Amino acid sequence: MYFAKMHGLGNDFIIIENLEENFLDYSKIATKVCNRHFGIGADGLLVVEKSDKADIKMLIFNSDGSQAEMCGNGIRCFAKYVYEKKIVSKNIIDVETLAGVLKAELRVINSKVDTVRINMGKPVIDKISSIYNSNLNNLNYDIKIDNKVFKASTILMGVPHTVIYVNEIDENEILFYGPKIEKLDIFPNRTNVNFVKIVDEKRIQVRTWERGAGLTLACGTGSCAAVVACYLNGLTYNLVNVELAFGKLKVEYIDDVYMEGPAEFICEGNFVL
Ligand SMILES: N[C@@H](CCC[C@H](N)C(=O)O)C(=O)O
Question: Where on this chain does substrate bind (predicted)?
Answer without folding.
Answer: 11, 62, 72-73, 192, 210-211, 220-221
